[in-house]
């Protein structure tokens, strides 16, 4: 189906994006999408989580994935063939995300690239007039998250953060129960990330594989010699690209801790952990315990990342526990909760979305399809208030993880000012609010 060019007005003003000086044109919609207008989507980063983005986009009505983008041509060719086989449709492939943003026929993009790319790709997309679904964590550092919010507002873009549990009816019900006082005064949240993370070894240095544009993969980070320790998944465990498991799986739980307690950023943070199991190339800690204090609200968050063999807590190994003076609620994973009341832990209310289908809606694992559905609904309505995971959550939940990592790396208790989003009289910690960006890949000021 042909696109209607009257929906968008081309603006002469452009933003230069990166060393190749590819112009990213800025577009402003002249009208909202109609109920039956087809939306064209591109998926950026197609290894791992990007596969879920493709399937969730394709599950939406009147939406077509038209482009796959990844710096690795090997993945692109496989992905293109798999797309053709699964959907009986052709899809374009592109290594350079800037060319995707310059394509005026693409309306929305999803970002499933490594963490160090999330904020810059989101901001560039907003500048180019694209609406964005961005994977967690929204940012690689605290300063980037604030700039994402500024970009979304300045360019009037719809930006959804990939914390799909916010689209789970069961989790929504659990949060509402806490708002209604079901377990009394809720004073503490505990986030759990108990995952079987093994030894990744150390593969040493090697030539860049044919087909991989390592310059684009590196993007905002400083250029380092190539190693298979990074590409394609284990970058999670290296500070230049990832944020450890608290900034990986843990963002779902940091987000729910804040949502359930109805808090933002804390004023005091302490964190301790280390590598105790494997002598491998990971830089980030295998085990990490962080505490975030909110003295004015009389609330506290405990967060624990634990590898390998472990018990569950309240039936959950990945999830959240909320404590009140009348009981506690356990959110297990992305789409169910149980509650326990009184000193005898009497079972209370509980709910599960019931798997892929809940309330007649195909939501996919952990509400992924439902979260994309919520995103597209907001895109069509041009109304960010509809979003279950707005850009503000991308900043705040990611910032909580970053604060814990900074406290761990500096090995001391930190005091933080949520209003200025800086540390209190601590220039060394303030330096870790941002990073040194490679020329051509700087995260821009957009205010």
TrEMBL record:
Q: Which stretches are transmembrane?
A: none
Q: Which UniProt keywords apply?
A: Signal
Gene3D superfamilies named among the record's database cross-references: Dihydrodipicolinate Reductase, domain 2, NAD(P)-binding Rossmann-like Domain
Give the Gfo/Idh/MocA-like oxidoreductase bacterial type C-terminal domain ranges. 206-261, 370-442
Kindly indicate where the leader peptide sits in this chain. Answer: 1-34
Q: Which residues form the Gfo/Idh/MocA-like oxidoreductase N-terminal domain?
A: 39-162
InterPro entries attached to this UniProt entry: Gfo/Idh/MocA-like_OxRdtase_N (IPR000683), Gfo/Idh/MocA_oxidrdct_glycsds (IPR050463), Gfo/Idh/MocA_OxRdtase_bact_C (IPR043906), NAD(P)-bd_dom_sf (IPR036291), TAT_signal (IPR006311), TAT_signal_bac_arc (IPR019546)
UniProt protein name: Gfo/Idh/MocA family oxidoreductase
